Amino acid sequence: MMMPPLGLALWLLLLCPGLMFWKPQVNQNCNNGRYEISVLMMNNSAFQESSSDNLKNAVNMGVEIVRQRLISDGIYVTVNATFIYSEGMIYKSTDCRSSTCEGLDLLKQISYEKRMGCVLMGPSCTYATFQIYLDTDLNYPMISAGSFGLSCDYKETLTRLLSPARKLTYFLVDFWKVDNLPFKTYSWTTAYVFKNGTESEDCFWYLNALEAGVSYFSQELKFKDMLRGEDQFQKILTDQTRKSNVIVVCGKPNIIASLMGDREVSEDIVIILVDLFNVDYFKDNVTAPDYMKNVLVLTLHPENSASNNSLSQNSSLVSIVYRYIYGHYCFLCQG
Ligand SMILES: *[C@@H]1O[C@H](CO)[C@@H](O)[C@H](O)[C@H]1NC(C)=O
Ligand SMILES: *[C@@H]1O[C@H](CO)[C@@H](O)[C@H](O)[C@H]1NC(C)=O
Ligand SMILES: *[C@@H]1O[C@H](CO)[C@@H](O)[C@H](O)[C@H]1NC(C)=O
Ligand SMILES: *[C@@H]1O[C@H](CO)[C@@H](O)[C@H](O)[C@H]1NC(C)=O
Ligand SMILES: *[C@@H]1O[C@H](CO)[C@@H](O)[C@H](O)[C@H]1NC(C)=O
Ligand SMILES: *[C@@H]1O[C@H](CO)[C@@H](O)[C@H](O)[C@H]1NC(C)=O
After folding, report:
1. Please, what is the average pLDDT of the chain?
2. Is residue 277 over pLDDT 70?
3. Taken in order 86, 128, 297, 226, is the CA torsion positive or negative?
4. Which residue of 17, 21, 85, 112 has the smallest Cβ count within 10 Å?
5. Which residues form the signal peptide (predicted)?
6. Does the structure show a pLDDT above 90 at 187?
7. Are 80 and 210 in the same domain?
8. Are residues 42 and 9 in the same domain?
9. In this structure, which ligand is nearest to the CA of 257?
10. 208 falls in which pLDDT band (50, 70, 90)?
């Protein structure tokens, strides 16, 4: 399903009907101490489990926290969230593949109805966000709980709440170089990357970035190859002629269970499981099953993860909105 960036761009242009470059004429509802955050309630989401009710509750709770913080700092302004639904539109699918035009359509709707707030909580799908920046001259801030792909990098007005793919590649390159950890006493220069084609949205873009020949990861390693499908993965586990002992996999532990089963694995094999937003690892008394023996998990501490993020006191969304109102909004802070 992945296409090279140029192919993708052309394909997208063909796909959003009647649309050339579009400059939104926006009257922002953002003055006289009145701050409004416009939330695009999209049918396509990077997170299959998130319903629009969840999102609405989370944003409302976040706004409430911001209000309380502002009051306790003696700043009396109105902070509101408005939710914009794609009514009557034909976005039936809920995964990101059909999301390209939904964000744009919503954005047009907002601008025709003059409902634009100070800041936009935009799409979480990389395609949708990419398309918005491709086709519009977006000069107000946008927050995204996703947009993981490299094609959403370096957008001045975009703040991504969760770790984008670029951040992951930089971390992995640094980690490959490290040689002074108790469990890693020499640096690595090679890797295999497992890609099955059935990954979740975040993993899709993470693996996409590791695969891309132009990415930092690919350029820093001496050898990198993709393992496509379970067969190729399983063959490498005992292959005497393999060129790397490190395999990057993205997903939850059950992916390892189904890949490894009771298979024989060479002692030297290390699997790096990228599973950033899973809080299970931090629960009390978790014990690693046998199949996790060769696996190092890369994850985020729950405070930084997506789980219940919008509800927690210190969530990124809250602090971004808060900073925005305070006037030292930092577009590039979260990279
Ligand atoms: C926004 O705030 C104003 C003033 O507090 C309030 O009257 C209005 O109902 C709010 N709108 C929404 C959508 O919350
Ligand atoms: C998403 O699509 C489903 C199925 O067509 C529909 O029932 C639902 O109302 C849509 N949700 C939104 C937010 O548009
Ligand atoms: C890999 O993809 C196949 C379908 O193409 C699926 O049946 C299988 O469960 C996937 N394996 C993993 C480990 O995700
Ligand atoms: C975790 O294990 C310890 C020691 O085995 C036990 O005392 C404790 O109750 C366990 N905690 C939970 C939440 O199961
Ligand atoms: C999310 O956070 C709220 C408030 O902090 C808490 O009541 C709720 O149980 C949490 N939900 C989950 C699924 O952890
Ligand atoms: C939020 O941040 C403050 C300081 O920045 C810290 O003291 C507090 O424990 C944090 N709260 C949560 C729920 O993480």
Report:
1. 80
2. yes
3. positive
4. 17
5. 1-21
6. yes
7. no
8. yes
9. 3
10. very high
